[in-house]
Structures are given as structure tokens and as C-alpha cells.
Amino acid sequence: xxxxxxxxxxxxxxxxxxxxxxxxxxxxxxxxxxxxxxxxxxxxxxxxxxxxxxxxxxxxxxxxxxxxxxxxxxxxxxxxxxxxxxxxxxxxxxxxxxxxxxxxxxxxxxxxxxxxxxxxxxxxxxxxxxxxxxxxxxxxxxxx
Amino acid sequence: xxxxxxxxxxxxxxxxxxxxxxxxxxxxxxxxxxxxxxxxxxxxxxxxxxxxxxxxxxxxxxxxxxxxxxxxxxxxxxxxxxxxxxxxxxxxxxxxxxxxxxxxxxxxxxxxxxxxxxxxxxxxxxxxxxxxxxxxxxxxxxxxxxxxxxxxxxxxxxxxxxxxxxxxxxxxxxxxxxxxxxxxxxxxxxxxxxxxxxxxxxxxxxxxxxxxxxxxxxxxxxxxxxxxxxxxxxxxxxxxxxxxxxxxxxxxxxxxxxxxxxxxxxxxxxxxxxxxxxxxxxxxxxxxxxxxxxxxxxxxxxxxxxxxxxxxxxxxxxxxxxxxxxxxxxxxxxxxxxxxxxxxxxxxxxxxxxxxxxxxxxxxxxxxxxxxxxxxxxxxxxxxxxxxxxxxxxxxxxxxxxxxxxxxxxxxxxxxxxxxxxxxxxxxxxxxxxxxxxxxxxxxxxxxxxxxxxxxxxxxxxxxxxxxxxxxxxxxxxxxxxxxxxxxxxxxxxxxxxxxxxxxxxxxxxxxxxxxxxxxxxxxxxxxxxxxxxxxxxxxxxxxxxxxxxxxxxxxxxxxxxxxxxxxxxxxxxxxxxxxxxx
Lengths: 144, 583
Ligand code: SF4
Ligand code: SF4
Ligand code: SF4
Known about the structure:
The complex is a heterodimer.
Chain A: E1 3-7, H1 18-28, E2 30-31, E3 39-42, E4 49-52, H2 61-65, E5 71-73, E6 79-81, H3 95-98, E7 106-107, E8 112-113, H4 121-125, E9 131-135
Antiparallel strand pairs in A: 1-9, 3-4, 5-6, 7-8
Chain B: E1 3-8, E2 13-18, H1 20-26, H2 29-40, E3 54-57, E4 71-76, E5 83-88, H3 92-98, E6 101-107, E7 114-118, E8 124-128, H4 137-144, E9 152-157, H5 160-163, E10 171-173, E11 177-179, H6 184-190, E12 193-200, E13 204-205, H7 209-225, H8 230-234, H9 240-246, H10 268-274, E14 276-280, E15 290-300, E16 304-312, H11 314-320, H12 329-342, H13 346-361, H14 367-370, H15 380-392, H16 396-402, E17 417-418, E18 421-422, H17 430-438, H18 449-455, H19 463-483, H20 495-502, H21 511-531, H22 544-547, H23 557-576
Parallel strand pairs in B: 1-6, 7-12
Antiparallel strand pairs in B: 1-2, 3-4, 3-6, 4-5, 7-8, 9-10, 9-12, 10-11, 14-15, 15-16, 17-18
Helix pairs in contact in B: 1-2, 2-19, 2-21, 11-13, 12-15, 15-16, 17-18, 17-19, 17-23, 19-21, 19-23, 20-21, 21-23
Bound molecules: iron/sulfur cluster (3 copies).
One iron/sulfur cluster is lined by residues 67, 69, 89, 232, 281-282, 285, 287-289, 486, 488 of chain B.
């Protein structure tokens, strides 16, 4: 069974960005909200949060949207940037809006999508166990 | 991080300067801010003058390690007339750091109400804020926050108290955090500045990532898995209510007692068990010490509910709860949120209301002055109306309170402020009163006298030893403030660890070198105070401190003044002699 992350308890989130910075640390070796594959958004009127991160689809819309086949679906769900040369750094970047959960941010400096590698760092540093990392039976998020 | 962003509100000009040497010598935070204050604030300047700068500064550990979150604000205080220094967490500091700013200096005065919209690369927009006048700061924050922004965004805002120049107006940060003390909000008002939004798409670089990750894990473990910060995570600061009450150190009814017999319903345990909704952290802190309560009130028949999310902390629970004899759980929360509604420092607001109540009971103040309000311990509805009057100033009585001054001379002996600042919620003993008196910003966290009192409960320390310990502690804290460490994490971050943590970021200082820098920052703070006319000799110390038994029994006035004189002499000497620079 595939090892993946899954946002199991979004309502436990307190918006500390520990996961966000764990991700930017892992992917880029920096602290940044902009350069992270996981995004935590405040809700305006209540103290709750919306977490956007790759849900690991088995038939990923982002990969389908790329005309150059730069994004390859992974057998365990989600995608990888198979061959960075294949990514044409295109101006209209169809992969970004194709993701229905809006979980694919664009890296404006290296001109490529910021893709979750399922490394589990975000889950490891979440103090409230919002994110699960381990064997998941299917790539659907929890009902909430 | 060595870039200082300058914003001139009068000329609407923006520029930045690299100040590598300054950051190298003073790290950041309060160290950098105090240097800029010396340089930019003209001597004996009126705090309301456009020349009084607002300085925000961040430190090298901020945003990089867990619980390093604090931005330091410096300005000349309208409340004390000397050093204005206030610290806040939230996301403000991390956003400044991602944008590459080590400090932001705001000068001048805007011709019309304005808010600043700050981005990376020195991009600053001056935006009209007339529509925000009179609105609660939290609502302004909601209006300015954008959903789904990818960069790191932080919003800070002021309320009506700032527009009315109440001397102790604060600034609310990201809804749950505060630059509460010493009137930063007042200076915002004097500059016609309503709010600041900062949004950064940038990143904080790490020099040696591998080394950093190893150390990060060590620190993270200490913070989440040991009991070093458990108190803040579990009940939050309100844990103090019961623990102080037990030792008879919980200021009650304007410090007439150190014991509140109705403390149960305003205790951290009670809040947590009954109405805690959730905890809110600063960015990159796993603790989340800010506690938010959920209150549902029916406002009309047929189950029409108003759902309120109200934050609480120990200090306002003391100042607006036990110190006003208020034990109604929701009543205390409403008083806190009334202060937030106008953007007031809840601590000194409570000190003022407690004074009015006692003065009213002693007939020093009558209904003529209070405009028909009859303050009485425990009656929070009256206090809510009084807070409104303090902000709106319908007569000279309330206008005086709004300046942080009590209008009746005979009443000064029980007006619980020191050096102009409202005192914190600890009647623990001599070290606490002394610590507040000799702290550079007259705050309990300057040097933690309360903690010394509790550590040596029932034991008498020689006055000189207390003074020396307090000074050393304050000098050490100058380093934490300069690096961006939250003081709640002080048990984790000692100078040795700070020295280690700076290393992977490319800053090499031994713990001893840091200690020396701390001494120099401390010296500069006092140098500024003395420059602005601060005198130990004329410091207001309320008699009440010596009349009500503290957790350590009655505080001896003789011993106190002996200690104060010794401290005054030592600090004056310290302020004169520059610490030898090692770097
Ligand atoms: S699993 Fe790794 S790459 Fe994916 S969001 Fe979490 S930290 Fe980022
Ligand atoms: S680390 Fe956990 S609690 Fe913090 S923002 Fe991420 S999901 Fe939320
Ligand atoms: S302990 Fe509290 S104030 Fe300190 S960094 Fe954490 S959330 Fe912020």
C-alpha cells in the first residue's frame, strides 16, 4: 500500500504554519510560505483554516492538463515532474488551474510547479496531528 | 535581514539602507531598534511630533526556529515620556523577515488617514484609510486580509483609541496578538496611520541547511516534548490565576488584597474546561499560547444566537477580573473584548478602572465626574461603559484618565502604575515591585521580579542581591529580544543554545560575546531614558504596595528604597560606561 500524506483532521489546525515551513525547508532549504507545496489559509470570520495540499489523485487533472507530459502520475497517486526538461515553463501553465483543490502552487523563480513529494515532513512537524502520513488505502481525503 | 526600510509619511517617500555593521554588532530586535531610536528621535522631542519614529525590528532566529516570533517596536512613549518598547508575535515578524527587512522605520505624519501596504523589494503603497476610522481593529484586519494569498501576509491595525490619542492605545496584530504596551497605537494615531499590511513572496535563507535541521529537531523536541513550555500550551498564561491566588499574590480589588475568594470562575482551569474553543499560535510556534473562548448568547427569542470568539490571557484576566472584583467568566471576556474593540492596553485600563472604583468609594470621585456611573467591584457592565467613556472623553475627568493620569492628587497613592506604566498582575513581593521600577520599560517581563519572588518564597534575599539578579536577567533578555525569541520559550533558549542556533545561519558569537552585547543594549536603553529626562528619584511608587501583604508578606518600604537607591546608582553608572566591544 502506498505511503502518503493525508489531511485527516483539518479542524484541529491552529494555523501555525509549522507544516508550511517544514515543506519549504525540505523542498528549498529555506523558510517561506510562498515556496511550499502545502498552503494553509485563514478563514476570515472564524478561527479555522483551509489546508490545500496534493490529495494524491490516481487520475490527476494537473498531469492531464499538461500538453507536454511533464507531469507523470505516480502509481501510488499524485504526480512527479518526470523530466524537468519536459516542462516548457509555459506562460499559461495549464497545470496550475487544473487542480480542483488548488493545491499546485507555481514557483515563480524556477518557473515550474511546486509538487508535493509525499516526504511526510509536514505531518512530522504538525503539533496537532492534523496530517496523517503512512499507508493509505485510497487517495481520498477525510469526509470533513 | 540587514536592510532597513524607511517610510516617510509626510513626503510619501520610501527608501532602504543596508546596515550590515549595525546588525552585526547588535543582532537585530531591540539591539538594532535602540540604536535607531537614539539616532532618529531628536532629544526631548514631543512624542506626538512627526519626528518621533516608529521602529520595528526583527532578529536572526525569528521565523527560523520554533517559537522565535517576536518583533520589537520602539518609539518615544506618550505614556511615560521616555523609552517606548513593545513586543508582539503573530505573523508580522516572519513576514518582515521573508521580505528581507531587518527593520522598518516610519517617520513623519500623513496628511490624511492612511494604511501602508508593504511588499518585497521596497514596494510600499500608501492607501487611503478614511473608511476605517472608528472601526474595531479586528474588523479592519478582516477587511485587509485576503483569502488565498500565497505569500505570507500579516496585518496590524489600530482602533478608535488611537484616533483619539488615548495615551495607552495599542496595535492589534493578526487578531490575536498585541503591541499592547506604552502607547504604540497612540503614535500611530499621531501619524494618521491606521494599519499596516505586509505580504511577502520571499524566503528566509539558511546558510547551512544540514546543520540547521539537526539543531531544529533538538529544539523542537525540547519545546513540544518536555515540560519547558507545557504551561503555555495547556492552560496558557491564565494558569497563574490559581497558582498566584494560592500564595496570596493575585492582585484583587485594586491590590487591596492578594487573594480573590471568587477566583475559581476566572481561573485557567475553569476557562479551559468550560469555554475554551481553540488555541492560536504565532507563525512557526507549535505552542499556541493564545486561548480563544467560545461564547454563545441568545439575543432574541427562538434561539437566535450570537456566537462570539473571545481571546483571553492572564494579564487582562487580572486587570479586568480579580483587580476589579469581577468573577463572572463571560463578564471578564467582555471587558477584554471591549478593550480590543477600541484598541486599548487592557492592563492599564484595568488599573484605571480599579482606581476610579476605590476613589469613588472614598468620595474622592463622584457621579458628577463619572457622569452618573457608579463603579462597584464586580459590576462589569458599568466598567464596559466607563471604558467607552475613557475613549470618547465626554468630560475632563475621563480625558485625564485617557492620558493615563488620575485627576485627584490624594488618590495617587493607590494608582497602580510605576513610571507611568500600569503594573502587572503579581503582588508577589519586593522583587516584583523593584523589577518594574528598574526595568527599562517598566514591565514585569523586563526582568521577571515576580519569578524571583516565587523562587525564593518566604526567604529574604539581601536587597543588593535582588537588584544585581534583576539587572543580569534584563541584560540577558536583551539578547532574546534581539534575536526574536519569544520570552515564553526562555527556558529552552539559553545563551549557549542561542549561540549554537545562530551558527548554521552564518552568525558566529559565543555565549560570552552575546552576554556582552546584551549589556550594551541594556546600557543604551537606559541612556535613552536618562536622555529623555527619566529619574529614579521622582519615580511614582504607589503606597499600596507597602500596605497590602504580598505573597512574601508585607514589603518593607525601607528595604525597598534601599534597594532602589542602590539600583539607581548602579544603573546610572552602567548607562555611562560603554561595554567593551568584542566584535
Ligand atoms: S509531504 Fe513533503 S512535499 Fe508534500 S506537502 Fe508535505 S512536506 Fe511538502
Ligand atoms: S502544522 Fe498542523 S496545526 Fe500547524 S498549520 Fe499545519 S496543519 Fe495546521
Ligand atoms: S508561546 Fe505564544 S507568544 Fe510565544 S511564540 Fe508561541 S504562540 Fe507566540
